[in-house]
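Good morning,

Attaching, inline, the backbone tokens for the sequence recovery test we're adding to the shared suite. The designed sequence is right after.
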């Protein structure tokens, strides 16, 4: 990852002041020279005090970014929206009209519109800032750290704190966060594509170069912004911050990505659609009025403009963008609480429509608490007692008898090899034994201790080389100096099939014997048996080497002609919560799939225990390789366990699901998982065991590496989406209600007695300020409260939402239009009843009639908020579940009362005080939306019930 923000830093003068081709460049110097120049100790690293001194001298290891847009600019960007511009135009027109004909003390309408525009911009700005802060904070939770030596101790530090002279420890999958000169390597390869464009990993060593070399050829250096493809290494930091090679070209890399999610883009489209609708409706009505009524020039123009302003105000859901951002931000935080850390906001939406969750096994579906249970060698088998990493527990024959001489010798050697080709340590911390390093390797150390091999393993041979483990090779070896016999020894552990194919002999007692075909097949059968007991299997072997030098490509040719030592069966129990999560995923119509590097039998048995598969069928990576894409498409349709797969197979599996039109969430932890993570709809990295590279390629990181967390995140994703739909339903129906009220109010003005004393032009049923007020009051708190509605208990009992289904479905539009029509009809009727003449004769003034209509329309919104919680469920189900909603309704009522009774506001909004009987009438009319919608929902449920009985799908509209 590229370091972000803040000031620039420098490397020490000795090195950085040298010109690029000068001899003082670290890649041209020996390790000793570099260490001396940077005044550091390759074994101890810097002391904490020295590191602190250098940090204050050179500054933090961060790249200066292009300045983020100023607050002012970010505030201004809130006004870019088409709908906001429409409102500003409306305010200007209204202000001009007031100037020409000042009918009130102040241009209240223009002021109100502008105030609302500003208020919304302010809310939008704050929400956006909050959302981006939330995402940044979450990113920091998964921020990359660097491992360094400080005062002889291995320490994890924030990358910003790296200083020149630090000794950096690098492992497969690590991001390199500073430029550094390598001082030790074991099969180290780095991915430098970001810097040099070279897509293949480049091999690294420690040899100084004789002449000046281009970046890509500096084989003894690693650079900031690159990552470790495989192997390990140690390096001295030579440059940090802007002095790194990446820092120099940082200016070129500033790509601003469109961070808007598909949902936000869709909402932009809805916004534009509304804008266009306003213009169209206004034009139609104006044309009609001009045709019907004979009005003269200036008055007509005024009327037209006033009407245009009002209809624009009515149609615009002012608060929508701010609410969407708020709901997404709150959702992201809710997910974080459940250990799912979102890196890309769009994942929140995509998660809700996940069809397939393809998960690793080890550590995600299982506990990653490894215990060696059984060792099988040429002379028989032994079992181990004890659980966890405490090195206590007896070793005995399966029947309980003592282990006799030959078997014991074989077992000890098999375990010694496993404990040597090993980088894990076990430690007792406060009475609890834990592993530092790979749990599989930790289990081998524990078993070796249980067998009585303690110090001997550590002391006898000194390690000179390591051939690191990788998921592709499925092997790891170390080369040791043999203190007794002179030459060298290679110890190997790895997947039994791989190890067996590289072995020619087998240890029997203390003698190597040729490995016959019969024995090979017996070993394979024993391996299958171990796997059938859900044990993770590993084999060990060794050989003598004439020299400690690595021959061939990275010395891997040394891993042949091995003497096979034995099979080791390791227990890694399934996670209890994973079993429940699998069942939950299934009931939600999501298919859990296991994709593992482990043995197919082990995988299948565990998959069955977890409920991922009923049969024990598993497809292996080797089988996958021989398949065409068409074959694979058929296989993924019915297979849920993929075993012994390489990371590149994962990519093919993701692609096959993609071809089937399914939305896939895929987990990964290694460097080579990155392409599959990127290709999947939701790439999920492991927070604990995952490499930096995989985290950066992911959309979401599991803080606890747990499968159950993915399912929880899907549930949250579904809830968020359902809530967004709820307030969309609510806001849009309220806007449509307002537009219809204005439209039909003006159209039917004569019929309902809507006329102003002495003028013949258009008389608006409600003033633009009043509509704005309704929008402000109802779009604010109640809509926001809807966004925080608790999860629907049925959210995980429905099939996933199809990816191409919009936020507002056609079915929702029908509901929205239905509600809008009821609101308009009710409001117009109350208006009619309040004014003299019309269908229902009343006796009030125009101001009184408008106040009544205003109050009715406002109450309509408050009743409708309960409707909007579902298209299918009755509003009375869980009526009190969301307390915020009730608080919001209370607040809205209080605000509305203020507008009607406070004299200053009365003047601004042209309202008059109304009595308790008037309130009752308005409330009765407004409650119709609740009853009518209940009736409609009742029939919808009956219909849906019938559908469901017939076919168990097609219900996405229901939430
Ligand atoms: P998953 O992909 O579900 O996490 P996994 O962790 O079992 O599965 P890998 O780590 O790729 O997959 O391991 C594949 C095989 O390699 C294992 O079944 C085991 O036989 C062998 N193996 C695992 N860890 C090591 C190791 N540290 N050294 C040598 N061999 C190992």
């Amino acid at each position: 990852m590229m370091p972000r923000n803040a000031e620039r830093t420098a490397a020490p003068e000795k090195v950085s002041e040298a010109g690029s081709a000068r001899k003082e460049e670290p890649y041209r110097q020996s390790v000793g020279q570099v260490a001396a120049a940077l005044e550091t100790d390759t074994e101890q690293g810097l002391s904490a005090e020295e590191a602190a001194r250098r940090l204050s001298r050179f500054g933090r290891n961060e790249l200066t970014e292009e300045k983020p847009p100023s607050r002012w600019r970010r505030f201004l960007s809130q006004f870019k929206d088409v709908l906001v511009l429409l409102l500003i135009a409306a305010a200007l027109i209204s202000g001009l009209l007031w100037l020409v004909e000042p009918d009130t003390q102040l241009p209240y309408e223009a002021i109100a519109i502008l105030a609302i525009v500003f208020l919304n911009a302010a809310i939008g700005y704050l929400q956006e800032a909050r959302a981006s802060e939330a995402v940044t904070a979450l990113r920091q939770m998964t921020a990359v750290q660097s491992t360094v030596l400080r005062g002889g101790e291995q320490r994890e530090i924030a990358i910003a704190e790296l200083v020149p002279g630090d000794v950096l420890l690098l492992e497969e999958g690590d991001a390199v966060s500073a430029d550094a000169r390598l001082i030790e390597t074991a099969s180290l390869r780095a991915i430098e594509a970001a810097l040099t464009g070279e897509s293949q990993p480049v091999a690294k060593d420690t040899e100084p170069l004789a002449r000046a070399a281009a970046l890509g050829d500096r084989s003894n250096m690693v650079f900031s912004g690159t990552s470790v493809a495989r192997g390990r290494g140690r390096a001295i930091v030579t440059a940090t911050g802007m002095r790194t090679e990446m820092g120099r070209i940082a200016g070129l890399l500033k790509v601003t990505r469109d961070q808007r999610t598909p949902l936000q883009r869709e909402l932009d489209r809805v916004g534009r659609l509304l804008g266009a609708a306003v213009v169209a409706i206004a034009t139609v009505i104006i044309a009609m009025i001009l045709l019907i009524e004979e009005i003269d020039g200036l008055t007509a123009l005024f009327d037209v403009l006033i009407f245009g302003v009002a209809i624009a105000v009515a149609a615009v859901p002012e608060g929508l963008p701010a609410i969407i951002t708020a709901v997404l931000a709150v959702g992201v935080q809710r997910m974080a609480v459940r250990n799912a850390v979102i890196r890309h906001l769009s994942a929140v939406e995509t998660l809700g429509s996940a069809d397939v969750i393809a998960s690793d096994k080890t550590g995600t579906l299982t506990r990653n608490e490894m215990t060696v249970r059984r060792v099988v060698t040429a002379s028989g088998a032994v079992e181990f007692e004890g659980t966890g990493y405490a090195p206590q527990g007896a070793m005995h024959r399966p029947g309980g008898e003592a282990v006799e001489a030959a078997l014991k010798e074989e077992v000890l050697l098999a375990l010694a090899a496993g404990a040597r080709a090993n980088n894990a340590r076990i430690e007792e911390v406060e009475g609890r034994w834990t592993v530092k390093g790979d749990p599989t390797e930790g289990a081998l150390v524990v078993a070796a201790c249980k067998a009585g091999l303690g110090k001997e393993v550590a002391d006898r041979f000194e390690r000179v080389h390591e051939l690191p483990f990788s998921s592709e090779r499925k092997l790891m070896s170390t080369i040791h100096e043999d203190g007794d016999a002179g030459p060298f020894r290679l110890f190997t552990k790895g997947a039994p099939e791989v190890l067996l194919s590289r072995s020619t002999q087998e240890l029997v007692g203390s003698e190597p014997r040729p490995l016959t075909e019969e024995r090979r097949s017996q070993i394979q059968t024993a391996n299958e048996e171990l796997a059938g007991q859900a044990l993770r299997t590993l084999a060990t072997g060794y050989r003598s080497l004439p020299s400690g030098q690595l021959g061939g490509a990275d010395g891997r040719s040394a891993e042949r002609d091995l003497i096979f030592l034995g099979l080791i069966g390791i227990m890694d129990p399934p996670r209890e919560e994973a079993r429940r999560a699998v069942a939950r995923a299934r009931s939600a119509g999501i298919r859990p799939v296991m994709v593992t590097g482990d043995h197919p039998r082990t995988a299948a048995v565990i998959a069955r225990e977890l409920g991922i598969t009923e049969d024990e069928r598993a497809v292996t990576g080797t089988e996958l390789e021989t398949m065409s894409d068409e074959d694979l498409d058929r296989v993924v349709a019915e297979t849920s366990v993929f075993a012994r797969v390489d990371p590149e197979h994962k990519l093919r599996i993701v692609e096959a699901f993609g071809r089937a039109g399914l939305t896939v969430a895929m987990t990964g932890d290694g460097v080579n998982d990155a392409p599959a993570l990127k290709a999947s709809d939701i790439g999920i990295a492991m927070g604990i065991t995952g490499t930096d590279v995989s985290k950066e390629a992911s959309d979401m990181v599991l803080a606890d590496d747990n499968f159950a967390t993915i399912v929880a995140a899907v549930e949250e994703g579904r809830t968020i989406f359902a809530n967004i739909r709820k307030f969309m339903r609510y806001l849009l129906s309220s806007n449509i209600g307002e537009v219809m009220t204005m439209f039909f109010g003006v159209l039917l003005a004569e019929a309902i007695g809507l006329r102003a004393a002495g003028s013949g032009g258009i008389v608006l049923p409600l003033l633009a300020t009043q509509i704005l007020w309704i929008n402000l009051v109802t779009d604010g708190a109640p809509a926001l409260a809807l966004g925080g509605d608790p999860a629907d208990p049925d959210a995980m009992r429905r099939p996933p939402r199809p990816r191409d289904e919009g936020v507002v479905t056609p079915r929702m539009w029908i509901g929205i239009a239905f509600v809008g029509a009821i609101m308009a009809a009710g409001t117009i009727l109350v208006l009619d009843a309040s004014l003299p003449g019309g269908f229902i004769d009343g006796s009030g003034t125009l101001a009184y009639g408008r106040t009544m209509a205003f109050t009715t329309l406002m109450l309509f919104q408050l009743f409708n908020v309960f409707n909007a919680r579902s298209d299918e469920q009755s509003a009375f189900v869980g009526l009190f579940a969301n307390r915020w909603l009730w608080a919001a309704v209370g607040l809205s009522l209080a605000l509305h009362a203020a507008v009607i009774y406070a004299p200053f506001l009365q003047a601004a909004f042209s309202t008059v005080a109304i009595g308790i009987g008037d309130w009752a009438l308005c409330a009765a009319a407004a409650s119709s939306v609740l009853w009518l919608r209940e009736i409609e929902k009742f029939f919808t449920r009956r219909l849906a019930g019938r559908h469901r009985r017939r076919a168990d799908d097609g219900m996405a509209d229901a939430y």
